[in-house]
Amino acid sequence: MLVTGATGTLGRDVVAVLKERGHEVRGLSRSRPGYAHADLLTGEGLAEALDGIDVVVHAATDGRKDVAATAKLIEALEAAGKPQLVFVSIVGVDRIPLGYYRDKVTIEGMVAAYGGTSLRASQFHDLVLTLAKALTKLPLIGFYPAFDVRPVEVHDVAVRLAEIVEGELPAQPGDFSGPQRRSTRALWQAYLTHTGKRRLLVPIRLPGRIFRALRDGAGTGPGGGIGTWEEFLVRKL
């Protein structure tokens, strides 16, 4: 099995989980020692990296370059005998009008045309923690009262991906998110409580299609994960 983005937040866990389940795994990186080396944008090294591979978990992301990188990957997969392809997308990409999300929808279409599978996961706890650390640099923290989220533990997503490649789930497994639907206020308050910081939480209301979609729960997903935000904070901080 080959994992793209193997040095990233999700990729590291995917590699570890697959190895724990007895699979031979090759991690892909542009230059990191100990990994297969290839450039997804140019295609250089992909043929060698895919040699003998029957499954690819595509967890690499590089902003607005993702469509071009995935096109190169699929081109290489076609030449390598069409290994199974599983792509990691994001819950709500078809409902939240962001350019990055539109690219994800495009990639999902490319993966489907190839015959692969896309798993949409909600935002990771790691991203929420990064936002919390940034917000608490200010004396006030704004939160959108109608905006609920369902962040997910990266390890849970890695396990779900392993279940997909092992054939334990349907070809199109649906959305996957954390076990608790939480308001942004609750997330920030839990972080403040855990760190002992004191900040004033201020409700704000924001216009626009993006915030309407978030208000309508476009980024929450149905659940399925196990790890909670509070458990993540205990482990990380």
TrEMBL record:
GO terms for cellular component: cytoplasm. One of its GO terms (molecular function) is aldehyde dehydrogenase (NAD+) activity. InterPro entries: NAD(P)-bd_dom (IPR016040), NAD(P)-bd_dom_sf (IPR036291), NAD(P)-dependent_oxidoreduct (IPR051783). Residues 5-95 form the NAD(P)-binding domain. Coiled coil: none annotated. It comes from the Bacteria. This is Nucleotide-diphosphate-sugar epimerase. It comes from Dactylosporangium siamense.
